[in-house]
Automatic annotation (TrEMBL):
<dbReference type="InterPro" id="IPR016143">
    <property type="entry name" value="Citrate_synth-like_sm_a-sub"/>
</dbReference>
<protein>
    <recommendedName>
        <fullName>Citrate synthase</fullName>
        <ecNumber>2.3.3.16</ecNumber>
    </recommendedName>
</protein>
<dbReference type="InterPro" id="IPR054872">
    <property type="entry name" value="Cit_synth_Halo_CitZ"/>
</dbReference>
<dbReference type="GO" id="GO:0006099">
    <property type="term" value="P:tricarboxylic acid cycle"/>
</dbReference>
<dbReference type="InterPro" id="IPR002020">
    <property type="entry name" value="Citrate_synthase"/>
</dbReference>
<keyword id="KW-0012">Acyltransferase</keyword>
<dbReference type="GO" id="GO:0036440">
    <property type="term" value="F:citrate synthase activity"/>
</dbReference>
<dbReference type="InterPro" id="IPR024176">
    <property type="entry name" value="Citrate_synthase_bac-typ"/>
</dbReference>
<dbReference type="InterPro" id="IPR036969">
    <property type="entry name" value="Citrate_synthase_sf"/>
</dbReference>
<dbReference type="InterPro" id="IPR011278">
    <property type="entry name" value="2-MeCitrate/Citrate_synth_II"/>
</dbReference>
<dbReference type="InterPro" id="IPR016142">
    <property type="entry name" value="Citrate_synth-like_lrg_a-sub"/>
</dbReference>
<feature type="active site">
    <location>
        <position position="265"/>
    </location>
</feature>
<comment type="pathway">
    <text>Carbohydrate metabolism; tricarboxylic acid cycle.</text>
</comment>
<dbReference type="Pfam" id="PF00285">
    <property type="entry name" value="Citrate_synt"/>
</dbReference>
<keyword id="KW-0816">Tricarboxylic acid cycle</keyword>
<comment type="similarity">
    <text>Belongs to the citrate synthase family.</text>
</comment>
<keyword id="KW-0808">Transferase</keyword>
Length: 379
């Protein structure tokens, strides 16, 4: 047993996985051997989900069947919708609302059990239901907190387009639907990131799929992980409202010891390939709107931080200005990340159950030893 301390488990190999691979020096990401660039350009989110869960890309007929199965699970049970309403009325934080709702989905899932948690077919069905229902719950939550009634899912729209439709009560145009679909593809999996690892730890105790996804949502919410996308947009807006240019604002922030959201990564030593693709999308959206402000601020910050700190943008940096220009509310950026990443979480949970070993590391004890228990009146 080694006594080397690996803080944050940095670089520690804890599992074998066939799902995704990151080459942090080359800035390359693949899902099951397909490059992220190829998938972003050619695959729909549904195709990527199928790839992650079933090991290969679907044929046309397999995809049709899969899309029908996903579509059939979109509707929320009335009780769950009531819970969404209650959370919206309480003005709950969107990630917390999502965490609570996903947890309670098990109450209405016939496959939910703590008995036979590793049943693969049941787990794929549960993963399908959770993945299909998250967009409905999130769109309904956003509408209800704004005093609007939820919009029923449509069967003739894909996963991405249907979400935007339910969010806005308006069918998105092709550019918006395709951009959003691509964003979902880009966020679907990413090795053993913290939230995925969290899901795996939960599954490794032979707890169930709903618990694993609930753990993962809680983990994604933090500002060092998925929560950074909303913080990037808050920063861009703060810059816009200040009398400083982006470079000055960031210089001051760094001098105050603040971290700049959307920069740095545990695995990438170069620019995240997803940030490159999202940066292009952000630029295209700016050009289409005739307003390059958000993209220009982002580029100025990227140039400065790369030069000054040697840090490159991660996925959260350009997703922020992309979503903003699509009219998506800032505080649901991280729930949208979850809406996509649920594919990866559940795929890793399936892998974990397949070859399970309890995940249980150790801490080096540095506390006091040999203490004598004092009587309560002597403390
Ligand atoms: C989807 C995702 O989860 S992508 C990541 C999203 N998170 C963010 O964008 C938040 C900002 N980024 C960060 O906080 C970090 O880069 C992390 C958490 C992502 C990675 O952190 P780690 O691998 O633990 O690197 P670590 O925190 O040791 O940083 C190394 C050095 O770079 C600095 N650094 C890293 N990121 C940043 C940043 N965004 N702004 C300023 N300095 C930074 C650290 O201060 C540290 O400097 P030091 O050695 O002088 O103390
Ligand atoms: O891999 C990580 O540590 C964080 C990340 O980029 C992701 O989860 O997409």
């Amino acid at each position: 047993m080694s006594d080397d301390l690996k803080r944050g488990l940095e670089g520690v190999l804890v599992a074998e996985s066939e799902l995704s691979h990151i080459d942090g020096d080359a800035g390359k990401l693949v899902y099951r051997g397909y490059t992220i660039e190829d998938l972003a350009r050619n695959a729909s989110y549904e195709e990527v989900v199928y790839l992650l869960w079933h090991g290969e890309l679907p044929s046309r007929s397999e995809l049709e069947t899969f899309e029908e199965q996903m579509t059939a699970e979109r509707t929320l049970d009335e009780d769950v919708l009531d819970q969404v309403r209650t959370l919206a009325d309480a003005d709950e934080v969107p990630m917390a609302a999502l965490r609570s709702v996903v947890s309670s989905l098990s109450a209405h899932d016939d496959d939910a059990t703590f008995e036979d948690v590793a049943d693969e077919e049941a787990n794929v069905r549960k993963a399908r239901r959770i993945t299909s229902k998250i967009p409905t719950a999130l769109a309904a939550f956003n509408r209800l907190r704004n005093g609007e009634e939820p919009v029923e899912p449509r069967e003739d729209l894909g996963h991405a387009a249907n979400f935007l439709y339910m969010l806005n009560d308006e069918e998105p145009d092709e550019v918006l639907a395709e951009t959003f679909d691509m964003a979902l593809v880009l966020h679907a999996d990413h090795g053993l990131n913290a939230s995925t690892f969290s899901a795996m730890v939960t599954a490794s105790t032979l707890s169930d799929m709903h618990s694993a996804v609930t753990s993962a949502i809680g983990t994604l919410a933090g500002s060092l992980h998925g929560g950074a996308n909303a913080n990037v947009m808050k920063m861009l807006k703060e810059i816009d409202e200040s009398d400083k240019n982006p470079t000055k604002w960031v210089t001051d922030a760094l001098e105050e010891g603040r971290r700049v959201p959307g920069f740095g990564h545990r695995v990438y030593n170069v620019k995240d390939p997803r940030a490159k693709i999202l940066g292009e999308k952000s630029e295209e959206l700016g050009e289409a709107a005739g307003d390059m402000k958000w993209y220009d601020y982002s580029v100025a910050i990227e140039e400065y931080i790369t030069e000054e700190k040697g840090l490159a943008p991660n996925v959260d940096f350009y997703s922020a200005s992309t979503y903003y220009q699509m009219g998506i509310p800032v505080d649901i950026y991280t729930p949208i990340f979850a809406m996509s990443r649920v594919a990866g979480w559940t795929a890793h949970v399936l892998e974990q159950y397949e070859d399970n070993r309890l995940i249980r590391p150790r801490a080096r004890y540095v506390g006091p030893t040999d203490q004598t228990f004092p009587d309560i009146d002597e403390r």
